[in-house]
């Protein structure tokens, strides 16, 4: 059968899912490998117009042709399929059932394992498939109407919504342009390889024509990428300008809030200090007038008996000897301290200690412990007088005559 567009379309329409049918059509297509580019375009058009099960058979056909071309080192169909294989795989993968999608993924994995296509082409195919999976997972409607706090377009913030289609366009254009540019450059390098012998002029002209188409296709794809990326950059610059303006306002706001916070803290400290001073002023009168009565009048304190002892005259019996006489006798005969070995005996003080006070009473230290100047010991001071002289003065008072006589006799007997 001669090669025509109708013949190719008939072969593709008659393709079934059996291995024999796929191999038969693949052999006929490879036999006409000089028309590889046209066959690839017709194959892509048939893929777009076919239902999901038929698309899987067309992917199997492309897989068979590509693997046979790699095995036989006939790269005509590899070059023809490289610019369109990513888009074709995405068309077949999108909208298919889970079973068909798993089979398509298995074919893509085989391409990677056996290095059927160049690495950029392989990565482009996988990126398109992953993009479809992500869009399908994020595009599911949430149960019960979704969360109250989620936006209508998923997890993308509203500020970034204008950038989403721009980024998607850039991604798609990048994948297509990368594949086209890679295929065109590979064909160009092969055409200008000095180790490759020049074909006949007709074949050389056909290959040059095919190279021109590939280069034009790659140029157009790269131009689309440039256009899409320029639009994305403009959107990003607008978003950046908006955020810079918002940042400036927020910085001014935080400076104002910091100043007001410091001012409020100072006012709060002043108010707290005033409260503490007021509490101290209220508590002070309560402490000073703690003894006031229910009507605020002070309560009189109980009288306390004075601790000062009464004068000597108040406790001296009537008829006692005069104090002045005893004091004069006491001062007339000052006691002499006895010194033993350089120390003053206890019980005897210094002559200066026996002097009378200004009031005419014995010093307050008499009869109490005092510190001796020589030995530092506490000694009890005693009053030393002549008993006979005291008795004579006492007897010379206004006593009864009989009593005075008895006392005199008693004193004589003692002598």
Descriptive labels:
Serine Threonine Protein Phosphatase 5, Tetratricopeptide repeat; 63% helix; ENTH_VHS; 415 residues; two-stranded antiparallel sheet; 14 helices; RNA polymerase II C-terminal domain binding; mainly alpha; single chain; Rtt103-like_CID
Compact overview of the structure:
Helices cover 63% and strands 2% of the residues. It is mainly alpha-helical and 415 residues long. The chain has two domains: 5-136 and 162-247, Alpha Horseshoe (Serine Threonine Protein Phosphatase 5, Tetratricopeptide repeat); 322-414, no CATH class.
Produce the secondary structure layout.
Elements: H1 5-13, H2 19-31, H3 36-49, H4 52-72, H5 76-81, H6 85-93, H7 98-114, H8 119-138, H9 163-191, H10 201-288, H11 312-315, H12 323-332, E1 339-340, E2 343-344, E3 369-371, E4 378-380, H13 387-395, H14 401-414
Antiparallel strand pairs: 1-2, 3-4
Describe the strand arrangement of the main beta sheet, using strand numbers.
1-2
CATH topology of the largest domain: Serine Threonine Protein Phosphatase 5, Tetratricopeptide repeat
Number of helices: 14
The span between the termini is 186 Å
Mean pLDDT: 75
Uncertain segments are 140-154, 324-333, 337-380
Into which percent range does the helicity of residues fall? 55-70%
Protein name: DUF618 domain protein
Coiled coil: 247-274
Pfam family, one: CID
Keywords: Coiled coil
